[in-house]
Amino acid sequence: MAELIQVRRKAQVTLPRSARQALNIEEGDFLDVRVKGGEIVLRVKKLVDKDQAWFWTRRWQEGEREAEEDIRVGRVHSFGSAKEAVDFLHRRVRKGSGVTRKV
Questions:
Q1: Which residues contact 18 (CB under 8 A, 6 or more apart)?
Q2: Is residue 42 a contact partner of residue 48, using CB atoms and an 8 Å limit?
Q3: Three-state SS letters, the chain
Q4: 9-45 — its CATH code?
Q5: Half-sphere exposure of 78 (CA within 13 A, CB side)
Q6: Residue 56 and residue 16: Cα distance in Å, rounded?
Q7: Which end of the chain has fewer CB atoms within 10 angstroms, the N or the C?
Q8: Contact of 32 with 42, CB cutoff 8 Å
């Protein structure tokens, strides 16, 4: 998707609608600007509240992807109560299924 845009007064440019839609860029979003190999590279940056930053850590996102894959292939269990869930986990630990308890 290549489109030609023009630099306007005060060095302003308008991002084409197709690019904004493809990258879900909204008014007020931030763009990281870098010059790399003779090109201008723009990357969309979303600001996250500090108390929500944990969700975007590499470790958490890897866990999210693993959970999504488990759900996709049906590696899930449903329980009628918290006690049923805890009992299930205790049985798994006793069977040596790889689930371990942290002390």
A1: 1, 3
A2: no
A3: CCCCCCCCHHHCCCCCHHHHHHCCCCCCCEEEEEEECCEEEEEEECCCCHHHHHHHCHHHHHHHHHHHHHHHHCCCCCCCCHHHHHHHHHHHHHHCCCCCCCC
A4: 2.10.260
A5: 3
A6: 29
A7: C
A8: yes
> Range(s) for CATH 2.10.260 in the chain?
9-45
Question: At 45, phi and psi to the nearest 5?
Answer: -125, 130
Tokens describing residue 28: 């007020």
pLDDT at 50: 92
Cα–Cα distance measured from residue 19 to residue 29, given in angstroms and rounded to the nearest whole number = 14
Mean pLDDT of 69-76: 96
Task: Give phi and psi for 8, each to the nearest 5.
Answer: -105, -175
- Mean pLDDT (the chain, rounded): 91
pLDDT in tens, 31-52: 999 999 999 999 999 888 999 9
